[in-house]
């Protein structure tokens, strides 16, 4: 597990590239590119060099890759092999024209994932150093070793989120469809469509309705367990009992804390960010916190939670950018708090994230 902590602390130490004339210039475009290169190239290489047994379903997707290489392409949206979506199968087929080697497949997926997240941070984050630190320390990086299709869909959503903020309806819907071609559940992002033209009524409804959903989930959890008992998703209920909720609880505290900081400083924030930008990112974090809370008693929701919680990596640095003295205190707390969360997440997932090289 030491490799993950080395990457975490390198993300903090390498922030020295922003230091010039006695201060840090996190908005320097050239320095942002250098920093992201210094961090996401190692992140991609470490991910690419892993053994096939690192990650809960890496080996399964390698077998899918081999089957796709050998089979005729199935043009149905969800088809052979393994009833997977067409976008993922098409990507597999295209990669197979270059090489059928399993290590090449992992390398290609790793490059796509890390390039996508780096692009997302470059476009959306006011402090790519803090974003990268949160990305690694809160476990989003290690989550990308698992659930390969979902992570590819998530990267597409992250890159396309600017279309939602800018009110570009067609491009946002096209991005969702593209993400759905890798992981059908990403259709959930259609619920964010009302944010394109937000009103007070829409905003209040989008705040209140998730709580009703949490209440329903709480009372329906036994029924949900019965529904999932004959499927592979029962594993998420079993894992929650084994792992315990403390890692998720610490993340939930951070999410609601970030939202509270945003609310207390809303006047200042409104002067620097558009209403659409801060509401959109804030609502994504809010939904992530709500889903993470609901997942405490309905662990099957954890997969859905992953789609929203990653936006904390951009939301929190963007909010903290505008604070003065309190910013230093919050960053100090994050510097201490985040490694604790990472240690907890790695400890409870040691069977799937114990790092090994492929050679």
Question: What does this molecule look like?
Answer:
This protein has 359 residues and is mainly alpha-helical. The chain has helices spanning 2-13, 29-48, 58-70, 86-96, 102-124, 128-137, 140-143, 148-165, 169-180, 200-228, 234-243, 246-264, 266-272, 275-295, 302-309, 312-320, 325-348, 350-353, and strands spanning 19-20, 23-24, 78-79, 84-85. Strands 1-2 form a two-stranded antiparallel sheet. Strands 3-4 form a two-stranded antiparallel sheet. The model is unreliable at 238-242 (pLDDT under 50).
Summarize the structure.
This protein is mainly α and 359 residues long.
Give me the secondary-structure topology:
Blueprint: H1 2-13, E1 19-20, E2 23-24, H2 29-48, H3 58-70, E3 78-79, E4 84-85, H4 86-96, H5 102-124, H6 128-137, H7 140-143, H8 148-165, H9 169-180, H10 200-228, H11 234-243, H12 246-264, H13 266-272, H14 275-295, H15 302-309, H16 312-320, H17 325-348, H18 350-353
Antiparallel strand pairs: 1-2, 3-4
Helix pairs in contact: 1-2, 1-6, 2-5, 3-4, 5-8, 6-16, 6-17, 8-9, 10-14, 12-14, 12-16, 12-17, 14-15
């Amino acid at each position: 597990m030491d490799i993950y902590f080395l990457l975490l602390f390198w993300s903090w130490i390498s922030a020295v590239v922003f230091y010039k004339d006695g201060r840090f210039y996190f908005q320097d475009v050239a320095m942002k590119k250098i920093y992201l290169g210094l961090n996401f190239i190692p992140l991609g290489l470490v991910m690419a060099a892993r053994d096939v047994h690192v990650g809960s379903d890496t080996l399964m997707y390698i077998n899918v890759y081999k089957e796709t290489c050998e089979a005729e392409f199935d043009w149905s949206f969800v088809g052979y092999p393994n009833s997977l979506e067409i976008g993922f199968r098409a990507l597999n087929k295209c990669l197979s024209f270059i090489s059928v080697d399993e290590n090449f497949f992992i390398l290609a997926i790793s490059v796509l994932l890390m390039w996508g997240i780096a692009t997302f941070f470059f476009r959306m984050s006011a402090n790519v150093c803090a974003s990268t630190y949160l990305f690694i320390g809160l476990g989003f990086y290690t989550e990308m070793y698992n659930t390969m299709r979902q992570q590819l869909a998530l990267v597409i959503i992250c890159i396309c989120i600017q279309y939602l903020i800018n009110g570009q309806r067609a491009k946002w819907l096209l991005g969702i469809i593209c993400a759905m071609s890798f992981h059908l559940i990403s259709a959930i992002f259609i619920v964010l469509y009302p944010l394109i033209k937000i009103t007070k009524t829409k905003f209040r409804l989008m705040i209140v309705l998730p709580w009703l959903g949490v209440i329903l989930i709480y009372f329906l959890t036994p029924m949900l367990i019965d529904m999932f008992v004959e499927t592979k998703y029962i594993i998420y209920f079993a894992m929650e009992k084994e792992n315990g909720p403390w890692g998720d609880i610490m993340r939930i505290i951070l999410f609601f804390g970030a939202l509270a900081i945003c609310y207390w400083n809303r006047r200042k924030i409104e002067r620097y960010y558009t209403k659409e930008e801060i509401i959109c990112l804030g609502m994504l974090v809010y939904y992530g916190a709500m889903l993470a809370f609901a997942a405490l008693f309905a662990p099957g929701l954890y997969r859905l939670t992953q789609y929203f919680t990653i936006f904390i990596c951009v939301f929190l640095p963007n909010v903290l950018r505008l604070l003065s003295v309190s910013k230093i205190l919050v960053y100090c707390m994050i510097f201490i708090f985040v490694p604790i969360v990472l240690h907890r997440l790695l400890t409870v997932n040691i069977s799937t994230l114990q790092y090994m090289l492929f050679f």
